[in-house]
Write a structure and sequence with these properties.
Elements: E1 2-4, H1 6-12, H2 15-27, E2 33-38, H3 48-63, E3 67-72, H4 81-90, E4 93-98, H5 104-113, E5 118-122, E6 131-136, H6 138-152, E7 157-162, H7 167-183, E8 188-193, H8 200-212, E9 217-220, H9 226-234, E10 237-240, E11 253-259, H10 262-274, E12 281-284, E13 291-293, H11 302-317, E14 327-328, E15 334-336, H12 345-348, E16 357-358
Parallel strand pairs: 1-3, 2-3, 2-4, 4-5, 5-6, 6-12, 7-8, 7-9, 8-16, 9-10, 10-11
Antiparallel strand pairs: 11-13, 14-15
């Protein structure tokens, strides 16, 4: 229901800013569970944070008076996140979602102080009795984008705009590259990292660079539609991240990854309410309905759409996995034998790129 100004929250320890909705419900004889969210970017970024905020709203709507839910946006991935997370815990939030990789150690630090509060860290890999991790298998949808790029690229050079070299991004790069190479074995993927999740100016500049390197397709692993707007201007193609970005680039945007967080948020809030919450690593994807793709651009040929649909169907029924060997890294070393699948802890810590990725 509410967004909280970050500075006000820190100054007041959160109590005054959050008391009103709680008191009003208590007066009616109802004590809802308070859920808190820590967001990296603004809720209007049209990508990553926008999708989490949509999931938060849908969770509140689904659970009605059982919960209230607050968020703090624009929280840096450094030690300054600790007082933000702490203030949410101090102000009565019994379940707190920290929604970016860089909050991992800060979440664990605060969790030690509040053993009765449940914490959920998005995209991380460290746990505690009261800290779980969760993520979506975004790489599954990136395989669709890779297949489209590989089938349609005229230059044989396609681009990937990434944020940081963390496992989630590395998985995305490799998924995109391998799916593209399944359509065109000679295709090259130019990789540019900008060391930021959300920086429209950097995203635009990186997209310009990729276009100048000959890329006629660009997929983005950053949070704004800025790169797609460059694609629109350059008359090349791209893909949205987190939410449908077609309206920002109606000709260039061929589809987008849709991050569907609400099923997970509803399930985990219910688990806190009914006392069944447990720590663990929860990684949902196409099968669970938490990763989807936006409607295809009408310009896509029917055979290309069919190839994309086949990948999504294969992920859903288990018959397809882009990370099926042989997988060879940039140096030519075999990382996965023919027919084997890369999964589990190896995916969670992957830090190498497949052959054909340049950057």
């Amino acid at each position: 229901m509410t967004g909280i100004n970050r500075r006000s929250l820190i100054k007041s320890a959160g109590a005054a800013a959050l008391a009103a909705p709680f008191i009003n419900r208590t007066a009616l004889g109802d004590t809802p569970t308070k859920v808190g969210y820590v967001y990296l970017g603004p809720i209007g970024d049209q990508g990553w944070t926008f999708a989490h905020e949509k999931g938060r709203k849908e969770m509140v709507a689904a659970l009605g008076g059982k919960v209230t839910a607050d968020y703090v946006e624009n929280v840096n991935e450094d030690q300054s996140a600790i007082p933000v997370i702490r203030d949410l815990a101090k102000s009565g939030h019994k379940l707190i979602f920290t929604t970016s990789f860089g909050y991992m150690d800060q979440t664990l630090a605060v969790a030690k102080e509040f053993p009765d509060v449940k914490f959920e860290h998005c995209t991380g890999f460290k746990h505690a009795d009261n800290v779980a991790t969760y993520n979506n298998r975004f790489h599954q949808a990136r395989a669709v984008m890779g297949k489209i790029s590989g089938m349609m690229s005229k230059t044989g050079t396609i681009g990937y705009l990434g944020s940081f070299k963390v496992p989630e991004v590395v998985m995305g790069v490799n998924s995109y590259a391998m799916a593209a190479q399944s359509a065109n074995p000679n295709i090259k993927v130019k990789l540019v990292m900008i060391d930021s999740w959300f920086d429209p100016a950097k995203e635009s500049a990186a997209a310009e660079t990729l276009a100048n390197l000959g890329c006629d397709f660009i997929t983005t692993h950053t949070d704004s539609p800025a790169a797609l707007q460059v694609c629109e201007k350059k008359k090349i193609f791209g893909f949205g991240q987190g939410a449908d970005m077609t309206r920002f680039a109606p000709h260039a945007c061929l589809t987008s990854i849709l991050d569907i967080w609400s099923p997970y948020y509803i399930a985990r809030a219910n688990a806190v309410i009914d006392g069944t919450w447990k720590s663990g690593d929860n990684w949902w994807g196409v099968k669970e309905g938490s990763v989807r793709i936006a409607p295809y651009n009408k310009s896509l040929p029917e055979n290309v759409k069919a190839a994309g649909d086949a990948i999504m169907k294969g992920w859903a029924d288990g018959s397809y996995d882009v990370f099926t060997g042989p997988m060879v890294d940039q140096s030519g070393k075999e990382r996965l034998a023919k027919g084997a699948r890369l999964e589990g802890k190896d995916l969670a810590t992957i830090d190498w790129y497949v052959k054909g990725v340049e950057g």
